[in-house]
């Protein structure tokens, strides 16, 4: 019986070591499909082994070394999920890691991956516009950790800029991420912002010059504007290089514009856009 347990532990350690080697060689920017699949298979086998050993959702009675090994596997899984662009998988790994970071945190040596992953989990909430959950999660974290960690300060700053409407600062943060995986959720956040800006444009304008629309929406290429316009149901006039907002045009055709936009609100909106343009230029 002891021999079987020892053999199982040795197998788990061997698989764990192989996983870490595979992950260290995985590209953080453009991993190949083959490498992602290989790592996925390793993670699946390890999660089965951890479940059989009672370590996937462990108790405080487990050995410290085994707990650290299990935490390593789940952390690799969380990072793999982002590189594979699998948000649901990332959520599952973070949920499993919370036991290690909270209930078992005082029993284990600190993990260098904990601050980046906590920051990524906050970014995940921001990118899905779950602001209330963002603040609830933030309140559960030690204030000293939040204040001292650039990984946690990054999403905190992003949330503040969002509340201020400083979207250009959010855009520039793509080039100032503390870790490569952060770009994935910042890009998702920018997509949310674009749709917020688009909703304002539809209410405030019948049409806009194409270049202005591209600038306001933080697009670098006209093809991106065209794709976004198709998604929103806008019409682009190639001859005049203007974009016409389809939703407003439809409302006009039906004679149902809804509540008129107050002049003061429109002026404030225009001034806000002008300030953003100045900061971009």
From TrEMBL:
Annotated InterPro entries: 26S_Psome_Rpn12, CSN8_PSD8_EIF3K
Superkingdom in the source lineage: Eukaryota
Keywords tagged on the record: Proteasome
A GO cellular component entry from the record: proteasome regulatory particle, lid subcomplex
PANTHER family on file: 26S PROTEASOME NON-ATPASE REGULATORY SUBUNIT 8
Family membership noted in the UniProt record: Belongs to the proteasome subunit S14 family.
Protein name (record): CSN8/PSMD8/EIF3K domain-containing protein
Annotated organism of origin: Pseudomicrostroma glucosiphilum
């Amino acid at each position: 019986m002891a021999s079987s347990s020892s053999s199982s532990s040795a197998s788990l350690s061997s698989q764990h070591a192989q996983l870490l080697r595979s992950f260290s060689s995985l590209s953080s920017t453009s991993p190949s499909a083959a490498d992602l699949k290989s790592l996925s298979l390793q993670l699946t086998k390890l999660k089965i082994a951890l479940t059989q050993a009672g370590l996937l959702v462990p108790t405080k009675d487990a050995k410290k070394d085994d707990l650290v090994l299990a935490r390593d596997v789940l952390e690799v899984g969380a990072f793999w999920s982002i590189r594979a662009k699998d948000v649901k998988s990332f959520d599952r790994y973070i949920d499993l890691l919370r036991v290690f970071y909270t209930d078992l945190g005082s029993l284990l040596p600190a993990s260098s991956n904990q601050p980046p992953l906590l920051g990524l989990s906050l970014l995940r909430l921001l990118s899905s516009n779950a602001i209330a959950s963002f603040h609830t999660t933030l309140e559960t974290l030690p204030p000293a950790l939040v204040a001292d960690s650039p990984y946690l300060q990054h999403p905190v700053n992003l949330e503040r800029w969002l509340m201020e409407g400083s979207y250009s600062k959010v855009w520039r943060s793509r080039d100032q991420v503390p870790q490569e995986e952060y770009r994935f959720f910042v890009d998702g956040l920018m997509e949310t912002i674009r749709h917020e800006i688009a909703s304002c444009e539809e209410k405030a304008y019948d049409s806009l010059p194409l270049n202005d629309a591209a600038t306001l929406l933080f697009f670098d290429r006209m093809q991106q504007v065209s794709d976004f316009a198709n998604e929103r149901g806008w019409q682009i006039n190639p001859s005049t290089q203007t974009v016409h907002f389809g939703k407003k045009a439809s409302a006009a055709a039906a004679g149902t514009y809804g509540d008129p936009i107050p002049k003061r609100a429109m002026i404030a909106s225009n001034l806000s856009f002008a300030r953003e343009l100045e900061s971009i230029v």
